[in-house]
Structure formats: structure tokens, C-alpha cells
Design goal:
The structure holds two protein chains of two kinds. In chain A, 33% of the residues lie in helices and 19% in strands. Chain A has an eight-stranded mixed β-sheet with strand order 3-2-1-4-5-6-7-8, with helices on both faces. In chain A, strand 4, helix 6 and strand 5 form a beta-alpha-beta unit. The model of chain A has no long low-confidence stretch (mean pLDDT 94). Chain B is an alpha+beta fold. Chain B has a single domain, classed as Beta-grasp domain (Ubiquitin-like (UB roll)). Chain B is 29% helix and 28% strand. Classes of the chains: A alpha/beta, B alpha+beta. At the A-B interface, helix 3, strand 5, strand 6, strand 7 and strand 8 of A face strand 4 of B. The complex binds zinc ion (ZN).
Chain lengths: 246, 78
């Protein structure tokens, strides 16, 4: 049952409509990493009425998170992010089921943590986790949206297994720049990145994503560049996959 | 051949320029990658992704007169 009044603002949009809203409320989204990008995304998913949200993180809230990480305030300092996040998400929308996993995603546990989800939102801050998500999502046939941000910039890559290019197709090098607190991260960058990435997630959940891309967001100038991507038939992760819709 | 080269994200700050016109004497994306990374040694360290005419490009791809090439880093934080 869709709460037509509560979601009237988004149901009124043609390419959501009642059908899209039903799909959203029937979806389970796993948010891996509920820091800058992930916390904003989790809040948006709760507000738009995603049926079940699984928040996965092993961090506790620190003071230097508060300038950019939605869902947390001063009362949450020192608490596990998943606990604070779940409380806030339920306060925003009681009808959303929230599962908490107080653990980091690794190559070993990735499949068990994301199994059963309709989509994975990658809010992690390193390429080791991203590649673990990439492989597990391909093994399980689960779409995901990669997000990353640093300073004023963000990148977003939505991946539909067997249909659009995966991270290995693009051969994105594993370059770790160090923590956000050291390199710097401006709060508007995570808001812009999450806004674009959640829209991409919705386009996947409502069956509307047609082509792969990388979006490069610049929160200082307010610009977003799009680079179209194509699958690499020789990709070691997804080269042999074909897409099954639904 | 003449190329238009655009830098995205922090490459703009590192190079100190958004867009430049280049007289390119090479043939492939790899040739251009070498020229750009020798002028900006930090690019290769951060990882250089390249798009030609708004499509993701591999090093083996041929470049053509008038192409617009975008050069950007993989962003890694969260
Ligand atoms: Zn692939």
C-alpha cells in the first residue's frame, strides 16, 4: 500500500507516478558507509519511502564528521553511526524498515551483507571497498551506485550488472589519497554528489537507467560533467554477463 | 592536429587551467596521456582518466582533429 498523500509530491512527477512509488516502497537499499555521501543518501531514501534500508558502517560519530554528515548531531558523538542513523531514519519515516550492520564491508563479508537488496549505494571512502562491492554485486546481480567526494568534487557511477560498465571495465586505478579530514571535504560536495547519486539510484529502481556514465560534480562552480561509458567485453568481472531485467 | 583539452575536478587546480588548445603531434590517447603527465607529474600519481568527445576512452584509441579530450582523476573519498 502506497501512502498517496505522503508521497504526492513525487508521485505527481510523470516518471515516478504510482507505479514508480510502488517500486520504491518495494525496494531494499543497502547503504554501505554512512558518512558524508551515505548519510545524506540514507535520509533521502527514507524520505522518499524506500521500503527497507540497510545501513552498514563500523564507525562512531566524531566531532569532525558533523560539518558534512547528515543524520548526526552533537548528542551522537561517540555513538555507533548505524545506531544514530537508524534512530534518525525511523524518526523521519516510521514506515521504513531499517536494518543495522555495525561492521565494515570487506571482500569476505560483502556478499552476505548485501544479499537480498535491490540496490547497493556505495558510500565508502576507499577503492578496496568499492571493488569488493563491485565483485559482490556482479556475483549476486545487484545494481549499485558508486559515489565518492573530496574537497569540492564528486564522482558518481551507476552500475547495472551485465548492462553498463563496471569499475573493472573502466579499469579505474586504485589510488588512495588519504582521509577526507586530511585532504579536505567541503559539505556542499557531498550534498551535490549524493543528490546526483540518489537520482541515479531511483532511475535504476524504477527501471529507467539506459546507459552507463560517470558524472563528475563540481560543487564550487556548480557544474556537472557527464562521460558516457561502455562495457568492456574483456572485463574480468562482467565480460561474460548478460543483463536480466526485473 | 588541434585538440581541445579540458581538466575536471582537482586537475583544474593542479594545472591552474580549465581548458587549453593543443597542437598534438601524436596519434593515440596514450600519446596524449604521456604529454599531459610529463607536463603535470602529479596527474599520473593520482590516476588519470580520459574521455574523448564525452565518451570514456582507452589508451589505444585514435584521436582526430578537433576532438575534445577531458582529463580527470578518480575521486576516492567518501
Ligand atoms: Zn566490467
Amino acid at each position: 500500500m502506497v501512502d498517496i498523500n505522503r508521497y504526492s509530491g513525487q508521485i505527481a512527477i510523470n516518471d515516478i507516478s504510482i507505479d514508480g512509488q510502488k517500486r520504491l516502497s518495494g525496494s531494499t537499499v543497502a547503504v554501505v558507509g554512512i558518512g558524508g555521501n551515505g548519510a545524506i543518501a540514507a535520509e533521502l531514501f527514507a524520505r522518499m519511502g524506500i521500503g527497507r534500508i540497510r545501513v552498514i558502517d563500523n564507525d562512531s560519530v566524531r566531532e569532525n564528521n558533523l560539518h558534512r554528515q547528515f543524520l548526526y548531531g552533537e548528542d551522537d558523538l561517540g555513538k555507533p553511526k548505524v545506531i544514530s542513523a537508524a534512530g534518525r531514519l525511523k524518526a523521519i519515516n516510521r514506515s521504513v524498515e531499517v536494518d543495522t550492520v555495525n561492521d565494515y564491508l570487506t571482500e569476505k563479508n560483502s556478499a552476505s551483507l548485501i544479499r537480498g537488496s535491490s540496490l547497493v549505494y556505495d558510500g565508502t571512502d576507499n577503492f578496496a571497498s568499492r571493488y569488493a562491492i563491485n565483485s559482490a554485486c556482479f556475483d549476486l546481480g545487484i545494481p549499485f551506485v558508486m559515489t565518492s567526494s573530496i574537497q569540492y568534487w564528486g564522482e558518481i557511477i551507476p552500475v547495472l550488472p551485465g548492462k553498463t560498465a563496471c569499475l573493472k571495465c573502466l579499469n579505474i586505478p586504485v589510488v588512495e589519497e588519504g582521509s577526507c579530514s586530511r585532504i579536505g571535504i567541503f559539505p556542499t560536495a557531498v550534498v551535490l554528489t549524493a543528490a546526483i547519486a540518489v537520482s541515479a539510484a531511483v532511475s535504476i529502481l524504477t527501471g529507467k537507467l539506459e546507459a552507463g556514465y560517470i558524472k563528475i560534480a563540481d560543487a564550487r562552480n556548480g557544474t556537472v560533467e557527464t562521460v558516457i561509458t561502455e562495457r568492456n567485453p574483456a572485463c574480468p568481472v562482467c565480460g561474460k554477463l548478460t543483463y536480466k531485467s526485473g | 592536429m588541434k585538440l581541445r583539452v579540458r581538466y575536471f575536478a582537482m586537475f583544474r587546480d593542479i594545472a591552474g587551467v580549465d581548458t587549453l588548445e593543443m597542437d598534438f603531434t601524436g596519434r593515440k590517447v596514450l600519446d596524449l596521456r604521456k604529454i599531459i603527465s610529463s607536463a603535470n607529474p602529479e596527474f599520473e600519481r593520482r590516476g588519470m582518466l580520459i574521455a574523448v568527445n564525452e565518451r570514456y576512452a582507452e589508451d589505444s584509441m585514435d584521436l582526430h582533429e578537433g576532438d575534445t579530450v577531458a582529463v580527470f582523476p578518480p575521486v576516492s573519498g567518501g
